[in-house]
């Protein structure tokens, strides 16, 4: 793998930019899993999912099964969803409420604080050997009602990992009122980084996203790079209609779109208070699973308003257009025609992303 320096007319050197083999070499993904994904924070949910004692939900973070549970002592914790006896996945359900967790293999049970309750196949002196066989904890933090986990026990605290991002996020005062409303996944044939690149610029918006450009004021569109994240957005064009509702009377008057290192995007669309998360999960070096999670004030799709349904339709259209683009891009990555791209002055957020990848991989 190699990198190239991009220069402008005044010969000022930009940061390094990735060559196309970084998108096609399976060995690169192996390094990314170890040096990037295993050491960074991952969004897993919202506090509304575990408000009551005994409530839990399960997640998967880079192929690691995780369970997030509010104990009977009201403390929120995260554990690997794995029985310490014989490595069986402990809880199969996506969510629920329990006082005791039980492994379906040998019947071991665990309290909501992760401590072993009973090990039925151990008796007498043997029982003393497993009394410390607790569930293994996962690093977890909650900020602005969002629950994050990190597979690295020694990782920098979440509050110190993204500059002033959470201060900026706190301005969305409706976040604590939201609930996880809907989650969907989509598999597409492209490297995970290609979608991030696409998200971090809007030069393609006029060509590929007519509905997006028709709604937001592109003359006022801004992309700002920050510490380990970037922000972009604009206001809604005056007197624009979104669905059947006048946006000038809605809760949010503009679109705000965040990228957090390495693979998380948070979007806030015009209309009633809302948030959607987008996660790019690599399956292999040329296949990615996109995970889309919607947060509204209602906990199910059949309860949300028509305006919120229109918002989802709008977002899905933009995302489908992007996936078509990055799948075509992946074909070009494999070609011998070129070994790298060219970056304009408006693509600084991509350059920042590339710098961070290359630094993490020590390239």
Fold and architecture overview:
This protein is α+β, with helices and mostly antiparallel strands. The chain folds into two domains: 3-39 and 161-360, Naphthalene 1,2-dioxygenase Alpha Subunit, Chain A, domain 1, CATH 3.90.380.10; 48-139, Rieske [2Fe-2S] iron-sulphur domain (Rieske Iron-sulfur Protein). 22% of the residues lie in helices and 32% in strands. It is built from eight helices and 21 strands. It has helices at residues 26-35, 125-129, 165-169, 192-199, 205-208, 210-215, 306-333, 348-360, and strands at residues 3-7, 13-18, 41-46, 55-61, 64-70, 76-80, 95-97, 100-102, 109-111, 116-118, 139-143, 146-150, 179-188, 222-226, 229-235, 241-242, 245-246, 254-260, 264-268, 275-284, 287-296. A hairpin with a 4-residue loop joins strand 9 and strand 10.
Layout of strands and helices, then pairs:
Blueprint: E1 3-7, E2 13-18, H1 26-35, E3 41-46, E4 55-61, E5 64-70, E6 76-80, E7 95-97, E8 100-102, E9 109-111, E10 116-118, H2 125-129, E11 139-143, E12 146-150, H3 165-169, E13 179-188, H4 192-199, H5 205-208, H6 210-215, E14 222-226, E15 229-235, E16 241-242, E17 245-246, E18 254-260, E19 264-268, E20 275-284, E21 287-296, H7 306-333, H8 348-360
Antiparallel strand pairs: 1-2, 3-12, 4-5, 4-7, 5-6, 8-9, 9-10, 11-12, 13-21, 14-15, 15-18, 16-17, 18-19, 19-20, 20-21
Helix pairs in contact: 4-7
């Amino acid at each position: 793998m190699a990198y190239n320096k991009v220069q402008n007319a005044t010969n000022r050197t930009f940061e390094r930019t990735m060559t196309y083999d970084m998108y096609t070499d399976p060995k690169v993904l192996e390094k990314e899993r170890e040096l990037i994904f295993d050491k960074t924070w991952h969004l897993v949910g919202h506090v509304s999912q575990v408000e009551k004692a005994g409530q839990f939900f399960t997640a998967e973070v880079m192929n690691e099964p995780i369970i997030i549970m509010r104990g009977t002592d009201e403390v929120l914790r995260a554990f690997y969803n794995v029985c310490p006896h014989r490595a069986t996945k402990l809880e199969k359900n996506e969510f629920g409420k329990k006082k005791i967790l039980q492994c379906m293999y040998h019947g071991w049970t665990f309290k909501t604080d992760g401590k072993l309750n009973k090990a039925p196949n151990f008796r007498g002196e043997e029982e003393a050997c497993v009394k410390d066989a607790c569930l293994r904890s996962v690093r977890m933090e909650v900020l602005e009602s969002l629950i994050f986990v990190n597979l690295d026990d020694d990782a920098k605290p979440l509050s110190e990992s993204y500059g002033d991002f959470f201060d900026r996020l706190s301005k969305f005062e409706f976040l604590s009122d939201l609930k996880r409303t809907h989650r969907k996944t989509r598999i597409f044939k492209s490297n995970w980084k290609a979608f991030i690149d696409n998200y971090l610029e809007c030069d393609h918006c006029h060509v590929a996203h007519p509905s997006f450009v028709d709604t937001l004021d592109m003359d006022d569109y801004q992309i700002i790079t920050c510490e380990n994240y970037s922000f972009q957005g604009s206001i809604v064009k005056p007197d624009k209609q979104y669905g059947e509702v006048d946006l000038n009377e809605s809760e949010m008057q503009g679109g705000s779109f965040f990228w957090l290192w390495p693979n998380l995007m948070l979007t806030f669309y015009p209309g009633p208070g809302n948030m959607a998360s987008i996660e790019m999960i690599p399956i292999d070096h040329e296949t990615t699973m996109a995970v889309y999670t919607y947060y509204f004030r209602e906990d199910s799709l059949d309860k949300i308003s028509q305006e919120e349904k229109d918002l989802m339709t709008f977002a899905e259209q933009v995302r489908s257009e992007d996936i078509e683009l990055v799948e075509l891009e992946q074909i070009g990555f494999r070609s011998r025609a070129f070994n790298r791209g060219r970056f304009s002055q408006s693509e600084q957020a991509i350059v920042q992303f590339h710098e961070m990848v290359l630094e993490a991989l020590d390239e």
